[in-house]
């Protein structure tokens, strides 16, 4: 586990040393993209790296994903679509691009699917149970953009990629794609389905991270544990990169000013650190971070695509899903307009449906809130497929959240946000005598691959500047180092006890000690602790047990030494985000009206991290 206070103190002491440590890279952003670079450098054994995030690690987009670890059927479809557009075999008014632009888009998306297949395999093999396989069924509807046989062909090709990568690893595997020719065939397989519109379906297997934020934490923790005294690998949450510039002293390096965003009166507000290269993994804030230099270019390099998720359950859904593994299958209606993923999840002992939609254009990265029609769209999409007993309404929704992804704005021509290639980009940018790597749209699925790409470039740059050779990347076969009791408190544990206060307290302790939990809102909303508070009332409807919320707050306050006003501030920060996201549902109101009892428990340990804001 990283120790932010200790490392910030170390950095404060190091800044006065001459020449002092020049890190191989400084990474701005501790989401999936930054974590991938840090871990890849650490895997080389002889690289030093420093990662900072102004909030908790994985607290932004990387905890707002659909949790799919997938090459992306949709991206394969886009590759074909753009290919057909290039040769004028199809028309699409949303995409007005030249032959070369369309061909490039097709090539990028095809690459994304091919290598994404490899990444899914590697994450399942090395992720220590965090990434698992799940079955999905794509439903072909009357207004689907492709015909049933075309979808079957596409998914078979998608699966063939999986088979080929499996054979490369000498583990033979054969296709598991299955075609359901009509709705009767589907109904025989999935009795909870009931839709007159469905024309058929195709079953295939894909990957799913049972918790996106934990995957990021695992990568960061793993990287830090692999550092050494000579080549330290450090990651500091609640530390912001506020300014950077290239200075020519002693061969030249970046000088980066870091400001602490946690309370520690004995530490300076800012420190400066040196680095040979700079990695900008600030996600949606990539342009803002890039321009924090005395010579900003003021350019906008990305556009945003927003997605929303709702999580819903009731006693019937929870019981049926736990009793019948056949029903634990993701539903993917092939809509004409926007893609929806309707997947069952089992977390913290609770079965629920996560409904996800993406691809709405968005402008302000600092204001990302769900809209009412998104909630309606998702409820409608799910309810249109299932029978009466499985339908959900606003009263079944216990959590809503949304996120944005930055997409490269330089695709040229005219193109709708949902059609921009989802392949990540690394924009290598000279700055003074050094190089900055801007990482655009790194998905959870490709974070290891993108990390290796950037770390490889850093290795070349370090060699060019200093003559020092970094070792090769070894993340391909490197398992994530586990921590004590990880399995016992894993969010996806199959037999996780529910409503057991002692187990809950132990779980909170585990997350504070080993999973870097330092803010109440982050633990409940980003790590998913809120699911521990979901209960069913006498009618089987879901409800939020405020006693559980209080228990978690008390335990965190005791462990992290929060006084009463800090405890209140932590609650307010959680309630503000949760209730705002739940505006269009019923449970948000109940939490809004709750106020935790003001009596703080006695502090049991020294504060670990005390961020100013949650
Ligand atoms: C709705 C939605 C659904 C998605 N679903 C999937 C999916 O199912 N599967 C998949 O593979 N991908 C999915 N993605 C994509 C994936 O989640 C993101 O692309 C990925 O998490 C981005 O990670 P990141 O590190 O680039 O950004 P982030 O996770 O946002 O991290 C950037 C970090 O930089 C920090 N930061 C910013 N400025 C500074 C600064 N100046 N100093 C210090 N820190 C700073 C922020 O605090 C933040 O933590 C989805 C994306 C969205 C929006």
TrEMBL record:
Q: Which Gene3D superfamilies does the UniProt record give?
A: D-Amino Acid Oxidase, subunit A, domain 2, FAD/NAD(P)-binding domain
Question: TM segments?
Answer: none
Give the start-end ranges of region Disordered. Answer: 592-614
Q: Which InterPro entries does this one have?
A: FAD-dep_OxRdtase, FAD/NAD-bd_sf, G3P_DH_FAD-dep
Q: Give a single Pfam family match.
A: DAO
Q: What cofactor requirement does the entry state?
A: FAD
GO MF entries: glycerol-3-phosphate dehydrogenase (quinone) activity
Q: For this chain's UniProt record, which GO biological process terms are given?
A: glycerol-3-phosphate catabolic process
Keyword annotations from UniProtKB, A to Z: FAD, Flavoprotein, Oxidoreductase
Cite the FAD dependent oxidoreductase domain residue spans from the record: 24-414
Family membership: Belongs to the FAD-dependent glycerol-3-phosphate dehydrogenase family.
Put simply, this protein is called Glycerol-3-phosphate dehydrogenase
Its source organism is Streptomyces mobaraensis (strain ATCC 29032 / DSM 40847 / JCM 4168 / NBRC 13819 / NCIMB 11159 / IPCR 16-22)
């Amino acid at each position: 586990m990283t120790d932010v206070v200790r490392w910030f103190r170390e950095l404060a002491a190091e800044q006065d040393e001459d020449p002092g440590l020049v890190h191989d890279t400084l990474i701005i952003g501790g989401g999936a993209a930054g974590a991938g670079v840090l871990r890849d450098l650490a895997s080389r054994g002889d690289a030093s790296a420093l990662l900072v995030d102004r909030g908790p690690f994985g607290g932004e987009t990387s905890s707002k994903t659909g949790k799919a670890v997938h090459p992306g059927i949709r991206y394969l479809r886009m590759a074909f679509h753009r290919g057909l557009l290039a040769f004028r075999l199809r028309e699409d008014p949303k995409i007005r691009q030249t032959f070369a632009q369309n061909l490039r888009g097709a090539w990028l998306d095809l690459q994304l699917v091919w290598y994404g297949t490899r990444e899914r395999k590697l994450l399942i093999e090395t992720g220590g149970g965090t990434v698992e396989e799940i079955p999905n069924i794509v439903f072909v509807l009357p207004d689907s953009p492709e015909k049933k046989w075309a979808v079957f062909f596409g998914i078979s090709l998608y699966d063939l990629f999986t088979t080929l990568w499996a054979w490369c690893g000498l583990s033979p595997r054969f296709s598991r794609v299955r075609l359901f020719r009509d709705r009767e065939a589907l109904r025989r397989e999935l009795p909870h389905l009931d839709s007159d519109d469905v024309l058929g379906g195709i079953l295939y297997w894909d990957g799913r991270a049972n918790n996106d934020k934990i995957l990021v934490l695992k990568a960061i923790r793993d990287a830090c544990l692999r550092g050494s005294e000579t080549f330290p690998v450090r990651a500091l949450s609640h530390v912001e990169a506020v300014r950077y510039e290239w200075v020519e002293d002693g061969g030249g390096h970046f000088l980066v000013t870091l400001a602490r965003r946690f309370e520690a009166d004995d530490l300076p507000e800012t420190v400066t650190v040196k680095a040979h290269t700079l990695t900008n993994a600030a996600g949606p804030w990539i342009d803002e971070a890039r321009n924090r230099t005395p010579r900003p270019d003021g350019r906008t390099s990305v556009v945003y695509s927003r997605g929303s998720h709702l999580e819903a359950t009731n006693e019937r859904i929870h019981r049926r899903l736990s009793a019948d593994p056949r029903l634990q299958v993701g539903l993917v209606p092939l809509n004409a307009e926007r893609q929806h993923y309707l997947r069952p999840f089992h977390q913290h002992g609770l079965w629920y449906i996560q409904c996800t939609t993406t691809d709405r254009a968005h402008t302000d990265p600092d204001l990302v809130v769900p809209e009412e029609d998104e909630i309606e769209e998702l409820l409608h999409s799910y309810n249109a497929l299932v029978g009466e007993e499985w339908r959900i309404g606003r009263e079944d929704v216990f959590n809503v959240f949304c996120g944005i992804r930055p997409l490269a704005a330089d695709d040229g021509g005219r193109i709708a946000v949902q059609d921009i290639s989802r392949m990540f980009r690394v924009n290598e940018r000279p700055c003074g005598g050094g190089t900055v790597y801007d990482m655009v749209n790194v998905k959870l699925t490709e974070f290891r691959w993108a990390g290796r790409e950037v770390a490889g470039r850093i290795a070349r740059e370090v060699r060019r500047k200093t003559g020092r050779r970094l070792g090769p990347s070894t993340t391909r076969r490197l398992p994530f180092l586990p921590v004590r009791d990880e399995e016992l408190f894993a969010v996806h544990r199959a037999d996780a006890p529910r409503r057991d206060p002692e187990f809950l307290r132990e779980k909170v302790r585990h997350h504070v000690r080993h999973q870097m939990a330092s803010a109440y809102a982050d633990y409940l909303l980003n790590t998913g602790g809120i699911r521990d508070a979901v209960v069913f009332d006498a009618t089987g409807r879901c409800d939020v047990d405020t006693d559980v919320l209080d228990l978690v707050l008390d335990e965190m306050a005791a462990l992290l030494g929060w006084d009463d006003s800090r405890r209140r501030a932590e609650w307010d920060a959680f309630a503000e985000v949760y209730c705002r996201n739940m505006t269009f549902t019923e449970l948000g109101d109940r939490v809004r009206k709750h106020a935790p009892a003001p009596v703080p428990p006695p502090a049991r340990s020294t504060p670990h991290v005390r961020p100013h804001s949650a």
